[in-house]
Design brief:
The protein has three helices and six strands; from the N terminus they run H-E-E-E-E-E-H-E-H. It has 139 residues and is α+β, with helices and mostly antiparallel strands.
Length: 139
């Protein structure tokens, strides 16, 4: 039995392979190319050793282009939601980096993101059931 779709949409996915992300301040031509391995319907986390060197503040509205493994991409606006430095308690859990919240996304891009996350969720569930020692009822 598969998990309800709402769980898929709100779950943060740890991706096997990093996804390319390009970000810049709204209207600025200077773009930064990076990647993410943590993605959800509401945002993503960029891992940086020294996030304090990230050139954006919590007030920055970002233009974000996320590239899927099939080379298609989506565009949306985001905002810095949190900065996790090495001395923060949550760094042990998340690693150091910047959390970006999606603040504006068109319907087509939102549907593409949702479909991608659904595929990743389904694949992760299938792989976890195929691992030795796993069982159908395991949490």
């Amino acid at each position: 039995m598969s998990a309800p779709k709402e769980n898929r949409r709100t779950a943060r996915m740890r991706l096997k392979d990093p996804m390319a992300v390009t970000i810049n301040s709204m209207g600025d031509s200077v773009a930064y190319e990076t990647s993410t391995r943590n993605l959800s319907q509401t945002g993503f986390f960029l891992e940086f050793d020294r996030p304090s060197r990230f050139p954006f503040s919590a007030a920055s509205i970002l233009e974000v282009r996320l590239q899927f493994p099939d080379q298609s991409s989506i565009f949306f606006n985001g905002k810095v939601a949190r900065v996790v430095n090495a001395d923060d308690a949550s760094a042990k859990e998340t690693g150091t980096g910047i959390g970006i919240k999606i603040v504006q996304i068109d319907a087509k891009s939102e549907n593409a993101l949702r479909a991608f996350l659904d595929r990743v969720f389904t694949e992760q569930q299938r792989n976890s059931k195929a691992e030795p020692g796993s069982s159908e009822g395991a949490a």
